[in-house]
Design brief:
single chain, 115 residues
């Protein structure tokens, strides 16, 4: 089992969500987050150029069995890019971490069947 965490642009959420549903990945958690990496935006405030520290992003978390890791990652990669095959700075990141245990609260099921 793995936990896939993707940080993407806010405007790409609908594209990514629809692509995941089409790939039969329907159980996701979405959060609004802020951060920055290489992407920088400039704003004009009272005649001065200001570079904000934090940029709004979307965090998607998906717990998957090992067989669905590549499908999930490839779906996010294709649907989150904003400039075709090359993408753009600020399109986001994907993190894959081991998931030690998953427990369904309602039934008490554990492991891959609980996902």
């Amino acid at each position: 089992m793995k936990l896939i965490t993707a940080i993407i642009r806010e405007v790409q959420l609908d594209n990514v969500r629809e692509a995941l549903i089409e790939a039969e990945i329907t159980r996701i958690t979405v959060s609004r987050v802020s951060g920055h990496g290489r992407q920088r935006t400039e704003e004009l405030h009272r005649g001065q150029v200001i570079i904000p520290d934090l940029i709004p992003k979307i965090k998607i978390e998906i717990a998957v069995n090992d067989a669905f890791v590549d499908i999930t990652v490839n779906t996010i990669l294709k649907s989150a890019r904003t400039n075709g095959e090359q993408g753009s700075v600020g399109d986001g990141k994907i993190f894959i971490t081991p998931l030690e245990e998953c427990i369904r609260i309602r039934t008490g099921e554990r492991g891959g069947t609980a996902i």
